[in-house]
Fold this protein.
Amino acid sequence: MSLKILTFGYDACHRWAVMRFAGFRVDECESIRDLRQKLMASTDVDAVIMVEDIVSIPSEAIIAAKSYFHGPLVLFESRCAAENEHVFDLRVPNLTEPSEWLQRIQAVIGNYARARSAKLRN
């Protein structure tokens, strides 16, 4: 079963192609409105990933993700420190090798899935 990822931000480093090659289903959101609509319409999203390569992530995008999604929120960091870094479940530093960040993303998704499963059992 492949993991479904919603993405937000400009992917200058071609990370989405790497994720697709690794078996992820990647759905790119072109705007905050698009992100919000996809989150409200879908129940099978495993993570939301945002990229801060060129510009900062708008706070409205983070608010939309936190309001409509109860799973991991991942940030691919730029060279500068993120303003809202505390709201992300995983922050991937600039220039991290794909083999490392792919494992870290899968781990954070797995942790959320186990926590959700344990919560349902109780």
Q: What stands out?
A: The longest strand covers residues 4-8. Residues 4-121 form a domain with the Rossmann fold fold (CATH 3.40.50.2300). The radius of gyration is 14 Å. The chain is about 40% helix and 20% strand.
